[in-house]
Amino acid sequence: MTTDTAATAAPTPPQRDARLRGRALGLLIVLCGAAFLEGVDVGMFGVALPAIRADLGLAVGELQWVVSAYILGYGGFMLLGGRTADLLGRRRVFLVSLGVFIVFSGLGGLATEPWMLLTARAATGIAAAFMMPAGLSIITTSFEEGPLRTRALLIYAGIGAAGFSLGLVTGGLLTMLGWRWVFFAPVLVSVVLLVLAIPLVPRPAEGSTGTLRGRADVAGAVTVTAAFLALILAVEQSSHADPPVTIALFTGSVALFGAFVAIERRARHPLVPLSFLRRMPLLRAYAGAAMLAAGFLGFQFLVVLVLQEQLGWTSLQTSLAMLVLGIDAILAPTLTPRLVARFGLWPVILGGLAFATASFLLLLPVAPDWTYAAMFPSFLALGLAFTFAYGPLTVAATDGVSDDDQGLSGGLLYTAFQFGAAIGLAATSAALTLASEAAADPIEATRMALTVPIGMSVIGVVIAIAGVLTSRRRRAG
């Protein structure tokens, strides 16, 4: 098994010194750049969809696949991507997947037919599914566990989270130049990152270049990837597909997951050791991440509709209004590490998820005459939610995990984020559809649909409270 370590990188600073400098700082900048790029790539397309539709003549059913094709590739292959990084080497997987991301993002910008665009989006989603867990596991295996790794992870996660919110603004600005720049701009940034990554990403230590032969759980990989694809597709289609289609997809997914469990029990080298899934602290981190993503995506969906369809704002005005969400890019690397050092991971996570709940509740009284000043507290609270929850959840999902399983844990974490996002978006969309039939006006329907993000965030708060209580019992014991 190939295991990347920091053996060939600069010496790791002493455990008591959490400052980042030299080669270690350069490595972190490259990995943060990749995480930010992936987040921006996701956020940009919501704003660019109308322009893409007008130019390529996409039907309504085809248009939603510009986003869905990426989600399927990203969420469906994430677990496989994380385990592949553990088996084939994190450096190799990161560099190759970044190269694939560059190629297909460029091809998407050159697309002249809908099928070309959708193929490019699916391929970039798959590339991101391999790149993201590989990048996360490079951090967790290149920085010694303790204050240094915690600081690196919090910076990494904070920059990645900022990409999602700033992607809305970036998408609005690039679309003004032409929707193809939504594809071409990431290519330019990715090329720079790839050039820097080649010398900075550490090579495997000598003697750790095991082979995949005899260790590849091919049956498990194929089965779980198919199961994830079916489940993501079922969730994504649930709000607009015929019920028999959704039921068939859910049933097929359950059957495939059952087959996967049976395969893992018999596999000599399982893709996901079932004992790994019995580690409650990790499961709690995955569940908290899913709820954070579910609430955010559902809320974002409703806010964009309110601002553009109910209040008549342009896409650029909408993007600029949500710019404050990017506050986590400033506070996550600076304030969050200090809070974690002072209070611990789960109390800070609890604070973040509480801010998310507050954000959604603050928008609940929304009315047609609301100004931006009335909405600002809600947007600020959501930015603080990501500041305090996203990074610490990433640390919690990798804490105590062996180097050989860091890619797996990263894959599970990002899969949880992706599934949470898909479920939150589908559930909120379905709730809005039902509310629109019962409510007297669209604003009232929005208020009713907001109960979904609120409910998701409350579940997240309960999960975080359990984490706080458990961590206190451990300290007391």
UniProtKB/TrEMBL annotation:
<feature type="transmembrane region" description="Helical">
    <location>
        <begin position="313"/>
        <end position="331"/>
    </location>
</feature>
<keyword id="KW-0472">Membrane</keyword>
<keyword id="KW-0813">Transport</keyword>
<feature type="transmembrane region" description="Helical">
    <location>
        <begin position="448"/>
        <end position="469"/>
    </location>
</feature>
<feature type="transmembrane region" description="Helical">
    <location>
        <begin position="93"/>
        <end position="112"/>
    </location>
</feature>
<feature type="transmembrane region" description="Helical">
    <location>
        <begin position="118"/>
        <end position="141"/>
    </location>
</feature>
<feature type="transmembrane region" description="Helical">
    <location>
        <begin position="343"/>
        <end position="364"/>
    </location>
</feature>
<feature type="transmembrane region" description="Helical">
    <location>
        <begin position="283"/>
        <end position="307"/>
    </location>
</feature>
<feature type="transmembrane region" description="Helical">
    <location>
        <begin position="412"/>
        <end position="436"/>
    </location>
</feature>
<keyword id="KW-0812">Transmembrane</keyword>
<keyword id="KW-1133">Transmembrane helix</keyword>
<dbReference type="InterPro" id="IPR011701">
    <property type="entry name" value="MFS"/>
</dbReference>
<feature type="transmembrane region" description="Helical">
    <location>
        <begin position="63"/>
        <end position="81"/>
    </location>
</feature>
<feature type="transmembrane region" description="Helical">
    <location>
        <begin position="214"/>
        <end position="233"/>
    </location>
</feature>
<feature type="transmembrane region" description="Helical">
    <location>
        <begin position="25"/>
        <end position="51"/>
    </location>
</feature>
<feature type="transmembrane region" description="Helical">
    <location>
        <begin position="245"/>
        <end position="263"/>
    </location>
</feature>
<dbReference type="InterPro" id="IPR005829">
    <property type="entry name" value="Sugar_transporter_CS"/>
</dbReference>
<dbReference type="InterPro" id="IPR020846">
    <property type="entry name" value="MFS_dom"/>
</dbReference>
<feature type="transmembrane region" description="Helical">
    <location>
        <begin position="370"/>
        <end position="391"/>
    </location>
</feature>
<keyword id="KW-1003">Cell membrane</keyword>
<protein>
    <submittedName>
        <fullName>MFS transporter</fullName>
    </submittedName>
</protein>
<feature type="domain" description="Major facilitator superfamily (MFS) profile">
    <location>
        <begin position="27"/>
        <end position="472"/>
    </location>
</feature>
<feature type="transmembrane region" description="Helical">
    <location>
        <begin position="181"/>
        <end position="202"/>
    </location>
</feature>
<dbReference type="InterPro" id="IPR036259">
    <property type="entry name" value="MFS_trans_sf"/>
</dbReference>
<dbReference type="Pfam" id="PF07690">
    <property type="entry name" value="MFS_1"/>
</dbReference>
<feature type="transmembrane region" description="Helical">
    <location>
        <begin position="153"/>
        <end position="175"/>
    </location>
</feature>
